[in-house]
């Protein structure tokens, strides 16, 4: 077995270095049967560790092991205003949505977008099927 260099892995809980220079964070969500929840990729190991700490503190409480001092993590949660959970009641998923760069859409928005795309496609096909009269 190969031994990893000591500097290869970030010294933070639940943070992994990516080959392209970014850092990934994930946590196990006890409200979802221990499912692994991807918190995202971050530009620095510290950002990824803070995302993990926020999720861990919010979901497991102050007794959990953190990367940073408890007060620092609590302050960062207050800044985020992360005291409300998501629709499914999972605080980890609520924090994941806060760290996400993309916009989350509900099922109604997705269905509406799909219906709009179908209407555009049908309209385009109808325009292509029109008979063309050539004038000399």
From TrEMBL:
A Pfam match: AP2
UniProt main location, coarse: nucleus
Segments forming domain AP2/ERF: 11-69
InterPro entries in UniProt: AP2/ERF_dom, AP2/ERF_dom_sf, DNA-bd_dom_sf, ERF_plant
Keywords: DNA-binding, Nucleus, Transcription, Transcription regulation
An example Gene Ontology CC term for this record: nucleus
Protein name: AP2/ERF domain-containing protein
Species assigned in the record: Aegilops tauschii subsp. strangulata
């Amino acid at each position: 077995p190969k031994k990893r260099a000591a500097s290869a892995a970030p010294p933070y809980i639940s943070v992994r270095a990516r080959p392209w220079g970014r850092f990934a964070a994930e946590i196990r969500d006890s409200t979802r049967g221990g499912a692994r929840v991807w918190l995202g990729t971050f530009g620095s190991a510290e950002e990824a560790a803070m995302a993990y700490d926020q999720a861990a503190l919010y979901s497991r409480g102050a007794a959990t092991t953190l990367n940073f001092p408890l007060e620092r993590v609590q302050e960062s949660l207050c800044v985020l205003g992360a005291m409300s959970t998501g629709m499914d009641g999972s605080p980890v998923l609520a924090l994941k949505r806060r760290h996400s760069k993309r916009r989350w859409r509900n099922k109604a928005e997705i269905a509406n977008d799909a219906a709009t795309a179908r209407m555009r496609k049908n309209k385009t096909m109808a325009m292509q099927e029109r008979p063309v009269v050539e004038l000399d």
